Structure formats: structure tokens, C-alpha cells
Amino acid sequence: MTMNDGYKIPVVGLGTWKSEPGETTYKAVLDSINTGYRHIDTARAYDNESDVGRAVKDSETGRKELFITTKLWNKHQGYDEAIEACEKSLARLGCDYIDLYLIHWPLKGKRNDSWKALIELQQRGLCRSIGVSNFTIDNLVELEEKFDILPVVNQVEFHPYYYQKELLEYCNSKNIIIEAYSPLVHAKRMDEARLVSISKEMSKTPAQILIRWAIQRGMVALPKSVNEGRIIENFSVFDFEISDSLMKRLDDLNELFVTCWDPHNPPSYAPV
Ligand SMILES: NC(=O)c1ccc[n+]([C@@H]2O[C@H](COP(=O)([O-])OP(=O)(O)OC[C@H]3O[C@@H](n4cnc5c(N)ncnc54)[C@H](OP(=O)(O)O)[C@@H]3O)[C@@H](O)[C@H]2O)c1
After folding, report:
1. Measured from the CB, is residue 258 less than 6 Å from ligand 1?
2. Which are the catalytic amino acids?
3. Residue nearest to atom 34 of ligand 1 (CA)
4. What is the pLDDT of residue 272?
5. What's the pLDDT tens digit per position in 179-196?
6. Residue 190 alpha carbon, nearest atom of ligand 1
């Protein structure tokens, strides 16, 4: 997909939250690149940026063909702090630029200063594209009122069981791509009867159906796995299409099921 700043983003990226730092993350990233993934999603908070960087360096695919995302964590929000945090992430990744740098969480009182820093980092060439994560429509409106530069993406929890249609429509209207995190519902609905029934009808796995649903709804999907077989399975989603009627049945799975953190009802450790 082409982002609102003209750069392209691959529609499937490997998630790495809860991928254990060290060899587990290193191997998952190398396996994914060998499978054909060109997009890796990490974050300062995942503690595995250096393993991602090592795998990127050791892979036979050139850095320029890969798309690396990392994120600014809450305790580093603020203008000076964000500049320093980005430089440190770059050092851990062993890269001289980040393809996409995100504000991980819409931290109240800090997010606007952080956004100002991301604009500066982009102008300095340290980040190609800049975006946000876990932003509500209100958070995005606030940013739009204060700045000329809008995020290229908003990375949020998104799957048929948490179909945030209003947010998707708002982001589409502003040319902000939704990156669907926890697109596999954090593996909490793989056996759900209606999903299993659709997957049998399509002769595809539940994971493949969920990823394909996100792509067909116009989003980037970020499935996480550290298992080589599942990494391959999750990328085998480009040779089939879900019909309109089955897409509608998937839309109807919505039950506002939040597996991760809900910015509308944030956990105490991530104050907004
Ligand atoms: N910005 C944010 O605040 C935020 C928050 C959450 C997530 N994210 C990003 O989004 C990525 C994905 O989200 P997520 O990690 O929460 O969950 P997810 O991708 O929805 O699900 C991951 C879980 O599904 C399992 N799994 C993977 N492929 C499978 C398959 N084909 N069949 C059955 N089980 C499978 C994984 O286990 P195995 O690893 O053992 O295969 C893991 O337990 C994260 O890794 C992170 O990069 C961002």
C-alpha cells in the first residue's frame, strides 16, 4: 500500500511482541525474511530490537528491501526524550534509518511534544515515515488541529471480533492506514465455531482467513509467530480471495472483544 507521504508499506508484517529476546526473535525474523516477509514490527518496549537488527543484518535480503517499524515507549515521550530514544533504537537495530517510527501510546500531556520530535526526526532523515499507535479518533483530531503533518498509519487492535468500523472509516477519510495488531485475536478465537466453519468452506486455516479479512478491509496486518510453520502459513494469503458474502459473515463476528489494551479504557500502567 502507498502511504500518505508517498512511501510504500508491505501489507503483511511479522509481529514481535512477546517474541522472546535473543535467539527466538532472531530466528523468527530470519525465518520470516526467508519466507518472503519484507516488513518487521518491533518496539522499544518489546526488548528485542537488537535481535531484529541482527537478523536483518545476517539475512541475504538487503536492508533497502526491508521495512522496519519500531516505536517510542511511554517513558521516553516528550521532545528531547523522543529524539534520544529514536537514536538509541537506531543503534540497537544497527540501522541508519527506521522505515516507520510510531508513538506507541497516546500519552496525555506528552503526545504533542513527541509528535513534534517525530517530525524533526523525519526531517533529519532518521525516520522515513512517522505514525501513531493506539490513537482514538479524538486523539487524531487533536493532532490534526495542531500539526500540518498527519500520521501515515494508526496501529491499533483490529480483527473481526473487534471491528472498529468508525475508526477505520475516519482513518480512510484522512488517508491514514490502519495497521491491524493482534490480527489473530492473540490466538484466543482460533476454535470459534463460526470462524472454523468459514475456514472449512474456504479450505484455509482460521489464521489465514483473519489475515485475509484485514487485507481485504484495506488494512496492513501484523501477525506474530515464532513458529516457522505458522510464519509460512500466515504469509500464504495472497493466492485467494474471500467473497463479499463471507466478508460480511466475518464482519458480523464483532463482539467488541479487546485482547490487548483499550485506549478508551486504559490500564493503569499506561496512563493517558
Ligand atoms: N502497538 C501496540 O500497542 C501493539 C499491541 C499489540 C500487538 N502489536 C503488534 O502486533 C503484533 C501481533 O499482535 P499479537 O502478538 O498481540 O497477536 P496475534 O498476532 O493476533 O497472535 C499471536 C499469537 O497467535 C499464535 N499464532 C500465530 N500464528 C498462528 C497460527 N497460524 N495458528 C495458530 N496460532 C498462531 C502465536 O503463537 P506462536 O508465536 O507460538 O506461533 C501467538 O500466541 C505484535 O506482535 C506486535 O508486533 C502492537
Report:
1. no
2. 46
3. 187
4. 47
5. 999 999 999 999 999 999
6. 33
Whether 271 has a pLDDT exceeding 60, the answer reads no
Could you tell me which of 230, 106, 229 has the C-alpha nearest to residue 156? 106
Atom of ligand 1 nearest to the CA of 208: 31
**How much is the pLDDT for 270?**
60
